[in-house]
Specification:
about 130 residues; five-stranded mixed barrel; about 0% helix; NA-bd_OB-fold; Nucleic acid-binding protein
């Protein structure tokens, strides 16, 4: 699996979506009810066109079938309308705490043939975080 961005049609790409309730609380991923106030989350904010800051990262060397090994993961904080929301995801390349990163779309986060699910049963694409130089 490659760390390179995919070249598919941007309209077919999923967003990296944070969710907001009517009271303005943001979460990633979304929840049926806001963990802060219990209201239904009704709005989404796409984080894929924003930059964030690495809060922490780790490297997994015991990965599930089909996931690259080692697999670096980072928690990234995004500023949205004077609020912060954190997202976790795979990393393309290397990062350090405090690095500015962007979300980069990839067609395959894991090998669909290596898992126990049918390859057509779900999407295998998504985003990795890449350091912005």
């Amino acid at each position: 699996m490659s760390d390179n961005a995919a070249s598919g049609d941007e309209n077919d790409r999923p967003g990296l979506l944070a969710h907001r309730c009517p009271n303005g609380h943001l979460t990633y991923p979304g929840h049926p009810c806001c963990p802060e106030c219990g209201e239904t989350q009704t709005e989404t904010v796409d984080l894929s066109d924003r930059v964030g800051e690495v809060v922490t990262w780790t490297e997994s060397t015991a990965t599930p079938p089909g996931v690259r090994e080692p697999n670096t993961l980072a928690i990234v904080v995004f500023e949205v309308d004077d609020q912060q929301v954190r997202a976790i995801g795979q990393v393309a390349g290397t990062v350090e705490i405090g690095d500015t990163v962007e979300a980069v779309y990839v067609e395959q986060l894991r090998d669909p043939e290596a898992g126990i699910r049918e390859p057509d049963s779900q999407r295998w694409d998504g985003y990795r975080f890449r350091r912005v130089d």
